[in-house]
Amino acid sequence: MRKFNIRKVLDGLTAANTAAPTQPPAARDTESIPESLQSEHFQLCKTVRHGFPYQPSALAFDPLQKLLAVGTQSGALRLFGRPGVECHCQHETSAAVLQIQFLINEGALVSALADDSIHLWNLRQKRPAVLHSLKFNRERITFCHLPFQSKWLYVGTERGNIHIVNVETFSLSGYTIMWNKAIELSSKAHPGPVVHISDNPADESKLMIGFESGIVVLWDLKSKKADYRYTHDEAIHSISWHHEGKQFICSHSDGSLTIWNIKNPAKPAQTIIPHGKQPKDGKKPDPCKPILKVEYKTIREGEPFIVLSGGLPYDTVGRRPCLTVMHGKSTAVLEMDFPIVDFLTLCQTPYPNDFQEPYAVVVLLEKDLVVIDLTQNGYPVFENPYPLTLHESPVTCCEYCADCPVDLVPALYGAGLRQKRQGYSKKEWPISGGNWGQGTQTYPEIIITGHADGSVKFWDASAIMLQVLYKLKTAKVFEKRSNSKDEKASTEMTDEDPFAIQLISWCPESRVLCVAGVSAHILIYRFSKQEIVTEVLQVSTTPQPRPSISSNNSDHNHDSLPCLNSSLKQSAGYQVELVVQLLWVGGDPPQPISTMSVNSAYGLVTFGNSSGVAVVDYLQKTLLLNVSATELYSPSEQRQPRSPRKNRGKILQTHKLCVLSNGCVICLCLSLTVLLSVCPSRAAVPAENRDGAFTRSRSSSVTSIERDVREAITALSFCYTFSRKADGALAPCMWVGTSLGTVLTIALSLPPAGEQRQLQPATASPCGTLMRMKGSILRMGFLDAGGCFLSPPYEPWNEPNTSDDQERERGRRRRAVWAGQGEGQFAVLCSDKEAKVLALPTQVCVSKHSITETSFLLRADIVQMGAGVCVACFCANGHIMTLSLPGLRPLLDVNYLPLTDMRIARTFSFSNLGQAMYLSSPTEIQRLTYSQEVCESLQEMLAELFIPIETPEAPNRGFFKGFFGGAAQSLDREELFGESGAGKASRSLAQHIPGQGSVEGMKGAASGVVGELARARLALDERGQKLSEVEEKTAAMMASADAFSKHAHEMMLKYKDKKWYQF
């Protein structure tokens, strides 16, 4: 029997009491932490929309207010003024905008839609609103015309009729021009829809009407009959007047232009075929494509300008769309990158009866807006100041960063100045209307967009504006693909855009950028203000033989994107530091990268996919870890195998590390399936000193069935926290989230900063499972013991391209910024189904919230508001929600936007201070806010569209022109079109719909007494509207009674003197 030793027991108790004070600290209970964020701090509203209007359909310009309006096929209106002045409006219906007419210098415009409705917009408020609407019931709208300084709108229809609308009351006039009265009485054929309406510049009582069939009528409004009729064999597309009102020009479907004298309707005075070939034998020239639009503009000194679109010969296959400018004997053909939707010639005067003096042409293309300078030789284009190049290459991903370091925007802008093109017009941008808002928002904001061609753009989004700062082209790192058949066959198996950006990870403080592409490649960039030239040198070593996979060695380099093997000049800005590629195995492409994270304080980048997770040291250019999701679990954790193979593949079935820097590129082939391309770091550490730091991965050839059931890596986060439950001190580590809801930890061991960081190896070791949740892990973050957000550690930015002495001195002084010193912490975990808060290091769940049961989250972020921290979520059912931290109380839940397109899920992004954004269309970014403070100040931040400007005086025609009848003839339209002169129109023809005006804005801003007053005013408006309707009915009844009384009186007089037997 073993002897009992009491001394050992006492020694054990003494050791236990001595070690008691070193127990790890525990975070405070969440109930004891005050949460400053409440429900009243949140309100969801749209702020601004940036980018090019998607699928444009109409164009208009106010020559006095200098405002440009663009309508789209989805019923949207975009208004542009000076750079930074933009506004987005949306009709209640999604019908296409056919035409836009400004009420020049009145702060209003009229829009005509494809659903046969016209709308009057008020532009005198920061958020334009519809004042009146008129819906035609029996006729389709084809053309509208609003003369300058007139309140009567001419509306042409598909039946060939013209109706007149009072834009002040949006009521129809009883004056109507019927098609059968406009054409020859002997003509039995219908002239077709109305394609043009305009006043004679010299006589407002003469109205020009163009029908599609080729008939043009000059209508006398006073006598209500046609003065002249002009007939042409070809269909008409547009008409434009000479400013004197004696000639007009027509564009036709055969590519010809005809110039007519108004008093000679028999034949055109001149016929021009701008792009037609004149045959020598006198035959009729070959027809050309239709000239869709023509404008005839005069100048005081010189020949007039004729600007037209279309009209090219049919044999010009593959030629770009063109805009033709004819001036005297010169003809300039300006090629466009996209089809022309519409164009407008900008002139000095708004009066049509004066010399126009054109100075620019605004050309609306399907995917661009071009402004051409007509005053300079060669017709150069203006540099477009609007953010319309967002879709230059399709946007594939977005990131939004608010409250960035203040020196970041100037640094990116300075690097982007070298990228600006030359050859633009030297004159100022001609669209200069409106005024900027007076908002108090001062923090910088940056939006990063990744594109299909591999480019990355940085945008300054401060103060609800958007301006491009810098453009990075990642495809420069790779060699251009040849056009051989073999290469074509291999590219058919991947996406059409092999360089497309899929993920972006950015550290604003250190300016380290990491991007992942669809070809399973990752690039790490560092920012530098100096230009460098990269020398590329490839050195290969003899790999160890592995017969089982040697046949696949040739496929690695064949199917992956080949890195550049020559010198690369890198300008100031972002310069590539490291390239990581996942290579093909046996003809199968690698799995796409699902998540990624970079940390400048640790010098590490990690990424994962459905095969596993890898950690790369981009300072030493080494692979620290390469394991599958199964290998992250500790041996004690029993996991059921999800595929027939016990040994599932790691993430880097084959991988290649390649760096381009001041040194060289060295390719080290450690096995037939592991290809590492590394280079000496900036401290010039020899590669042979780090050979032992590489981790060799095993090849894994798995079937598609295994790939479907594999546990994928969905979230990664570097942190400075407790990696294990028994840890008593904070340490660098990495947390991993999987598609099965598992959260695992990886402990990191890093050498001290400075030269030792370059020499000594870093290690990464899995620590096992931390937590299991319902759904797939989306986001992980950390709070300190007081509930404040802990940002990941970072290293402040320093210029990387310096001399060796400067580098060593900088390395001694460099100190990374570490957060979360001292007491315990909270870990915030969010999956696509629920959210949890854990106390660290005890790993006890202190709060839990089930976010959704019937749907799933697409995006979740831990964001900082002005008064605290919250979790912002975007759900697939369209709900935007916020949860308090650490208590996870619901603060906001709004049904905002249902998921109708995966583009929204791919680009939706939350940011700090209540900001968010997503790609609302392939060409537009929609920004929104969920902060009550930002919503309250939004009205001040928005731009002013209307500025009071005096209308210039009408041109003085001179004594002789007035004496001999050359002056413009005025017309009293009120007397002609008013109810007293023309009567009332049929009520069944169109329905008047009163607009909301500013009522919606008043409802949203109303609160307290102001809200009561606003509601009272709204009630009075509604009561006034009802009273006006009653008054109209009373007036109608009185008129009917008067008519009956008059008729009865006439009957009485008729039979007054007759006897009873005379009836």
UniProtKB/TrEMBL annotation:
GO biological-process terms attached to the record: exocytosis; Golgi to plasma membrane transport; protein transport
SUPFAM superfamilies assigned to the protein according to its UniProt record, in alphabetical order: SNARE fusion complex (SSF58038), WD40 repeat-like (SSF50978)
PROSITE patterns in alphabetical order: V_SNARE (PS50892), WD_REPEATS_2 (PS50082), WD_REPEATS_REGION (PS50294)
CC annotations in GO: plasma membrane; SNARE complex
Membrane topology category: Peripheral membrane protein
Residue ranges constituting the V-SNARE coiled-coil homology domain according to the UniProt record: 998-1058
InterPro entries registered for this protein in UniProt: Lethal2_giant, LLGL2, V_SNARE_CC, WD40/YVTN_repeat-like_dom_sf, WD40_repeat_dom_sf, WD40_rpt
Any one GO molecular-function label of the UniProt entry: GTPase activator activity
Official protein name in the record: Syntaxin-binding protein 5-like
Protein species of origin: Denticeps clupeoides
